[in-house]
Amino acid sequence: MTQSLSANQLVSDMIENVETVIVGKRNTIRMITVALLAGGHVLIEDIPGVGKTVLVRAIARSIGAEFKRIQFTPDLLPSDITGLSIFNQKNGEFEFRPGPLMGNVILADEINRTSPKTQSALLEGMAERRVTVDGVTRPLPDLFFVMATQNPIEYEGTYSLPEAQLDRFLLKLSMGYPSRTDELAILDKHSGEDQLAQIRPVLTVSDILELRRQAESVYVSDSVKNYLLDIVIATRKHPMIDLGVSPRGSLDLLKAARAFAFVDQRNYVVPDDVKAVAPFVLAHRIILRQDEAGREGAAKTVIEKIIDHIGIPVMTREMIR
Question: Membrane spanning segments where (predicted)?
Answer without folding.
Answer: none
